[in-house]
Automatic annotation (TrEMBL):
Alphabetically ordered keywords of this record: Membrane, Transferase, Transmembrane, Transmembrane helix
Transmembrane segments: 12-35
Protein name from the UniProt record: Glycosyltransferase
Keyword Transferase: yes
Molecular functions (GO terms): transferase activity
Source organism, top-level taxon: Bacteria
Amino acid sequence: MSIFKDIIHGTSSVFTCIVYVITIYYLCISFFGILRKKNERAVEPKKVFALIVAAHNEEIVIGDIVESLKKLDYPKELYDYFCYC
């Protein structure tokens, strides 16, 4: 029985060390990722798209949805929205 306990203890120790190494690796990656300076660059929108709003039995909230669509921070000429009833 002692040999069985030694084998279990040994494999458990190996797996524990592997988990510790992986955890330290991920912590280092996270730490350096937080410290890395992010370059903020202004990106001009180029995509043209359409928003389709399914509005079946939504007469109570459709006004709020349309108002939210009007307030989008995107050039108005690059998107259209359609209410589908």
